[in-house]
Design goal:
CATH architecture of the largest domain: 2-Layer Sandwich
Mean pLDDT: 89
Strand order of the largest sheet: 1-4-5-9-8-7-6
CATH topology of the largest domain: BirA Bifunctional Protein, domain 2
Number of domains: 2
Radius of gyration: 37 Å
Helix content: 25-40%
CATH class of the largest domain: Alpha Beta
CATH superfamily of the largest domain: Bira Bifunctional Protein, Domain 2
Number of helices: 11
Strand content: 15-25%
Order of helices and strands: HHHHHEEHEHEEHEEEHEHH
Shape: elongated
Length: 347
């Protein structure tokens, strides 16, 4: 048996030394050291030999296996180095050849493009941009915004509360930044706040996560006329220069008076066909707004916001709603399905 082991070792060493490629070397490894090879089978059959043969045979077989493994490793390194050199010589790039056609760099998502468009409008009107936390305290999200303790928005069926906490929520609107910004900056103040917000809604026009842009202006002698003029400029920049806006009485806890804002319909109306956007009313609701309630200023009066001296207006809009109206998107969920066929329309 020992003589056969020596023959296998000599045969394998000669074959390994003559291997010309890594693929050939792998074939030899399997042939001489694989599970079905003769040398490993010798080792597995040691127990069947006579007791006096087991020691010398096992030692010879192990020495042969270890020697072949080391030889294969050294030869593999040699072949790999040579093959790398060959690939480097073959893969030389001719820099004088014309370049490949440039690949498209992609495009902004419709929501991102709409957000930036809205931001550009208000930056042009003298507002600045602020951002705040999406995980918010009940104080900033509700209390300081004049929400009564029994307000429906505080219900757990409407708001995401952080597990184990009654005072921490995923913000339901970007309005908490009204308070945070007034705490950080004295009047006059003109700011918009874009960002994600969260509510327990999910249907064709609502999702649990969506995007809002909040606006706040605080100065002396601010009136409802200033609010209307600002939103008229916004509506004409987004929906076209011929648009008009109207204000309808409404209620929001943190504004008084509060108004819903409609823009004149921007769709072409044809006789005998009902407008899918305005339902032939001629007006489309786009956002909510109003004059800042003096109770809100009372939470930041020590920062210079004396309700007897300053006034302000606030507004909030859904970015998804503006995008859907402007581009005729029928279902809010299309904005989140990541269907390239849909998204490519808005390059």
């Amino acid at each position: 048996m020992i003589e056969r082991i020596a023959e296998l070792r000599d045969e394998a060493e000669a074959a390994i030394g003559a291997a010309g490629t890594s693929a050939e070397l792998e074939e030899l490894r399997v042939r001489y050291l694989g599970r079905k090879a003769e040398l490993p089978n010798v080792l597995r059959g040691i127990a069947t030999l006579a007791p006096e043969e087991r020691g010398p045979t096992g030692k010879a077989a192990n020495q042969a296996r270890q020697a072949l493994e080391a030889l294969i490793a050294r030869r593999g390194e040699q072949l790999a180095g040579g093959e790398l050199e060959e690939r480097l010589r073959a893969d030389v790039v001719d820099v004088t050849l014309p370049g490949a056609p440039p690949q498209p760099v992609g495009r902004l998502h419709l929501l991102t493009a709409t957000r930036r468009e809205i931001e550009d409008v208000f930056l042009g009107l003298g507002f600045r941009i602020a951002e705040g936390p999406e995980v918010e305290t009940v104080y900033y999200n509700f209390d300081a915004l004049n929400h009564a303790p029994t307000h429906p928005a505080r219900d757990r069926m409407d708001t995401f509360y952080v597990a184990g906490r009654d005072d921490v929520v995923l913000r339901t609107h970007t309005s908490p930044m009204q308070i945070r910004t007034m705490e950080a900056h004295p009047p006059p103040l003109y700011v918009i706040v874009p960002g994600r917000v969260y509510r327990r809604d999910s249907d064709a026009t609502h999702t649990p996560q969506f995007h809002q842009i909040e606006g706040l202006a605080v100065d002396v002698d601010i009136t409802l006329t200033d609010l209307k003029g600002t939103l008229l400029a916004f509506a004409r920049a987004i929906f076209g220069p011929d648009r008009e806006v109207r204000l309808r009485p409404h209620f929001f806890p943190f504004t008084e008076p509060s108004v819903e804002v409609d823009v004149s319909c921007f769709m072409e109306h044809r006789a005998g066909t009902r407008c899918r956007v305005c339902k032939d009313t001629g007006w489309v609701e786009i956002l909510g707004s109003g004059m800042v309630d003096p109770n809100v200023f009372s939470y930041v009066s020590e920062y210079g916001y004396d309700p007897e001296r300053v006034q302000g207006f606030a507004f909030g809009m859904g970015i998804e709603r503006i995008a859907m109206l402007k581009h005729g998107v029928p279902d809010l969920r299309l904005l989140y399905d990541n269907d390239v066929r849909f998204l490519e329309q808005f390059g």
